TrEMBL record:
This is Solute-binding protein family 5 domain-containing protein. Residues 101-444 form the Solute-binding protein family domain. One of its GO terms (molecular function) is peptide transmembrane transporter activity. Its main location: periplasm. NCBIfam families: TAT_signal_seq.
Amino acid sequence: MTEFELKLQSAAKLAAKGRVSRRDFVQLALAAGLTATAANAMFVQAVRAEPKKGGTLKIGMGEGAATDTLDPGLSLNSSFTGTALLGTLSNSLTEIDSKGNVVPDLAESFEPSDGAKKWVFKLRKGATFHNGRTVTADDVVVSVRHHNSEGTRSVAKSLLASVKNVVADGAETVVFELDGGNADFPYIISDIPVMPAKEGGVDWESGIRTGPYMLEKFEPGVIATFNKNPNYFKSDKGWFDRVECLAINDVTARTNALNTGEVHYMDRCDLKTLDILKQNPDLVISETTGYGHYVYVMNVQKAPFDNPDVRNAIKYSLNRDEIVQKVFLGHGAIGNDNPIAPTVKFATDPQPKHVYDPDMVKSLLKKAGAENTQFDLSVADAAFTGATDSALLWQEHARAAGVNLNVIREPNDGYWDNVWLKKPFFASYWAGRPTCDWMFTTGYAAEAVWNETLWKNPRFNELLVAARSETDDTKRAGMYAEMQQLLHDDGGLVNLVFNSYVDAHTKALAHGEVASNWPMDGQKIAERWWFA
C-alpha cells in the first residue's frame, strides 16, 4: 500500500468521525489517483459507515391489533409487537445473531451439564432495568415462571414445557433443570424477555424492561413510543434519542408513509409496487429469503379436513410456482409443506413434491368421497401481503382440478382475533425459527398453543422428545427428517412459499448485517440501526 493510500485510509476513518471535511478528503483522494466522482463516493460511504447518535427513528410496521398487550405471555409476537415490545424495549438471556447463532444477551455465559439436562446461566454485570434496579437471577426466574407455571395462559407455555425447575443460585446465577437433554435450549430462552420481579410474580404491566429504549406510551394496535435508555448495558447499541413504532397495517398506507417521510423504515413492502418504490432515489430496498413462510392452514380435527386424503388433495390443488411468480414476482422459495427453512440445520426436502396435479386431486377426493365438497378459505392481507391474490389464483387452479374452493375475504382489522385459530381453513404467516426443535415445539407439538392445525401425531411427538436429547448428529438428523416427512404427508399445513423479506428504508439510515433470521434480528431494528 502506498503512502497516499495509507493516508487515504486514515482520512476515511477520520471522515467517519466528522474530523475531516469533504474538501480535504477529496483533495487527498485526487492526489492518490482517484477521480472526483470516486473520491466523493468514497467520502459519502465513509461518513455513512459511522453511526450517528441522536434523532427520532420512526418505524412503520404491519400486524398491529387492538388486542396487543405488554404481557409477553399473551402477545402474538407480530412484527409490530416483536419490534416494539421485544427488540426495542426488552432483552432476554440470549439472542440470535445475524448469522443465526445463539449468543449471550443479558447472560454473560451459559453452560450445559448432565447431558444438557442442566443449564447454568451467569448474568452480565452492570445490566439494569429502566428504573435503575440491577437485574438479578430472581427476576429471570419469575420471568420464566410467568410462562410455564400452573394455570398460565402464556402462548410460550409449550416452548418451556421441558423446564422442570428454574432457580436462582445467588444474585447472578440461574440454573435450569430440564426433563430431558436439550442442546438447543439457549435458542429457546432467547424468546423470553426478562422483566422485574414483584411480590407474587412478575411486573409486566409497567413496561419496565432492560432494553435500549424506555417505554413512553403504548396504544395497542396504534403506536408505541420510547426514549433512549441512558444506562443501557451495551454501549455500542441504541443510537437514537427517541423511537416511534407505528402500526400501519395497510401496505399502501405504509408505503405512502415512507415516501412522504412520515416513517424512516417500513416492513413487508408491496411487491406489486416495488418498482415504483425503487424509483425513489432517497430509498433503499433490502431483501433476503430466510425462515419465514406464508401458509394456509387446515384444522385437521374438523370435517372435511379430518380426512388425510382431503388434506393431500388440497395440497396438490394449487400451482405454487405460478403463484410465486405472479403474486410474489419471484421473491421467495417455493414451499413443499414443510415449515423448516432450507437454511436451518437438519432441514430436508420431503418427497414427493406437492406440485399441481389435477388428476391426483380428483383421485384423492374420490377416495375420500368429497368430490362435491365446498372448501371455505378465509383470507386477508393481514395474514401476509398477497394472501388474497394468492387465494384467488389458487381458486382458479382448484376449479380446473375439480375443487370448489370458496375464497372468503375477511376484514384486515381483527383478522388475528376473529379468524386465526377460529376458522377451519385460513391464511397465516410464520416468521420461522432457527432450529427444528423450536419450530416444531412452537407450532406442531400436540399441545402447542400455536398448533394452528391441531395436528396430533404420536410418532411425531415421540421423535420430538427423543431428538432433543440425542447427542449423535447423524441420528438426530434422521429423526428430524422423519418428522418433516410426517408433516409433509399427513399434516394440515399448506406451505406456499418461504418468503423473501422485502423492507425499505430511507438512505438517512444505516444498519448492520441482514441475514436469514432477519425477522428475529429485525425485532431489534431500533437497536441495530442508526442515522447515517
